[in-house]
Design a protein that fits this description.
Layout: H1 2-12, H2 26-29, E1 37-42, E2 47-51, E3 57-58, H3 63-75, H4 96-100, H5 111-124, H6 128-140, H7 149-157, H8 160-171, H9 179-190, E4 193-194, H10 196-202, H11 204-207, H12 222-235, H13 241-247, E5 252-254, E6 259-264, E7 268-273, H14 284-297
Antiparallel strand pairs: 1-2, 1-7, 3-4, 5-6, 6-7
The protein binds glutamine.
Length: about 300
């Protein structure tokens, strides 16, 4: 497995000049695009890593999975009164459907949906920024995890589009807390820094029927873990979710920091990171790495496991 990961990274290295790092905020536009790392954690505890697997990066929308898990844990099924679990087929920051669908976001992994989730969590936790950070520390087994202040502040400064979505949802009665306060929480969650090795630990519960691998703690029921994996498979890569299912065939979640997490249910959590993005805002080289991995090993939830 170790040799396989290294050879796949070598094969995709020529692609490293392609794509563009996220440029919507200055704090992300300066990241070196030539970085590339991968980690894989088996449900048997075996950890494999190659390249820049221990370099922390901005997890961005990968945090939307942690926020969803937090909301499921206290709101349960009632969550779905506020948003759906349908793929959107639109860019992560699109607002076109929000107007037509009366302020009810399609799913928790587009920005509009993640903002509703952040609103739900804001009502539940006295310190939403810290409670999320602590959840991620617990799941990754890394007490050093912090939110990058410069990234969060920069997101807040350039918040117009996310703020517009929140106010539109408020106008439909689907946003209950102060918009600015919820945006601050959301941006701090996106600005959490973690490495591939941290994130494979952080996502081990989704490969392990809801149970965190290192602590044994039950994070979700097996049924809930299966449902989160289903939403990742259908919406985790926005308007490229179909392409990801076709090329990789695993539940996945990407972020504009260039990370992609994928889950092989019952077997592995995987995280690949390379900062340059394709037109859909997903790591260009990360997609290629996961495609090769799925091709070589034959892992796909669409084929016999
Ligand atoms: N912080 C980013 C935003 O709200 C997250 C987007 C992403 O990673 N796709 O625009």
């Amino acid at each position: 497995m170790q040799a396989l990961l290294e050879s796949i990274l070598d094969e995709v290295r020529p692609l490293l000049g392609q794509g563009h790092v996220a440029s919507y905020i200055p704090a992300l536009s300066g990241v070196d695009p030539h970085q590339l790392g991968i980690a894989m954690l088996g449900t048997d505890g075996a950890l494999y890593q190659a390249g820049d697997a221990e370099t922390p990066f901005s997890i961005q929308s990968i945090s939307k999975v942690f926020s969803l898990v937090q909301a499921i844990s206290h709101a349960g099924e009632s969550l779905w009164e506020r948003l759906g679990h349908e793929p959107s087929g639109q860019a992560f920051n699109s607002m076109v459907q929000l107007e037509f669908e009366k302020g009810r976001p399609r799913n928790p992994f587009i920005n509009a949906g993640a903002l509703v989730i952040a609103d739900i969590n804001q009502s539940r936790y006295a310190a939403p920024i810290l409670s999320m950070r602590d959840l991620v520390r617990r799941l990754t087994d890394n007490v050093q995890i912090i939110s990058d202040r410069a990234v969060a502040d920069s997101e807040y400064q350039y918040r117009a589009r996310n703020a517009a979505m929140a106010y539109l949802m408020q106008s439909f009665g689907n946003f209950h807390n102060d918009v600015d306060e919820v945006l601050k929480s959301y941006f701090h969650h996106c600005a959490l820094s973690a490495s591939c090795v941290d994130l494979v630990r952080g996502f081990s519960f989704l490969a392990n029927s809801g149970r965190c691998l290192h602590s044994g703690e039950s994070i979700l029921t097996p049924r809930q873990a299966q449902q989160v994996n289903a939403i990742m498979a259908t919406s985790g890569l926005y308007d490229e979710a179909g392409n990801f299912a076709y090329r990789v065939g695993l539940p996945g979640k990407s972020g504009v920091g260039g990370g992609i997490v994928a889950v092989v249910p019952g077997r592995y959590s995987i995280c690949v990171w390379s900062p340059a993005l394709n037109a859909s805002g997903n790591s260009l080289v990360g997609m290629a790495v996961l495609e090769k991995l799925s091709e070589r090993i034959g892992w796909s939830v669409f084929s016999p496991l």
